[in-house]
Amino acid sequence: MSDRTTQPNATSADEVVAAAPTDRRRDDAREVLDLMREVTGAEPVVWGPSMIGFGTQPYTTADGKERAWFALGLAPRKAALTFYGLTYDGSNDDLLERLGPHTTGKGCLYVKRLEDVDRAVLTEMIRRAWRENHRPA
User: Polar residues compositional bias: what residue ranges (predicted)?
Assistant: First the structure.
């Protein structure tokens, strides 16, 4: 048995989106999933209860264990759409300046309303993250 609690599972991305708290969040999440599918050419996999990931990337934990994580992802949270993998190590700072209203955390990008961000900029961020992060097993 693994010591990790967040792992890929059989839940579908559609189930995660359907469980989003509002119609707006569900609509935004569907739109982003379509964009991520188009850019990556990959199908999403749900990790844990509500993170939708695309592709894989290796990483090493502080205790030296080798792990796999998704290359980029999305979670339709109550407060915002949460994007994973788009802002690692200061990547995409040049694009963040042009994206529109957002906040960031460690490796996460938070967008309250998809309609308020520049879609071309978001698309380029996803494209870059896929190119930089995705390492097939």
Answer: 1-12
pLDDT digits (tens, 9 = 90+) for 76-109: 999 999 999 999 877 788 999 999 999 998 889 9
16 and 45 Cβ atoms separated by less than 8 Å: no
Taken in order of first residue, the domains within the chain and their CATH numbers are 13-133 (3.90.1150.200)
Kindly give the pairing relationship between strand 45-47 and strand 51-54.
Answer: antiparallel
pLDDT in tens, 28-86: 999 999 999 999 999 999 999 999 999 999 888 888 988 889 999 999 999 999 999 99
Residues 91 and 128: beta-carbon distance below 8 Å:
yes
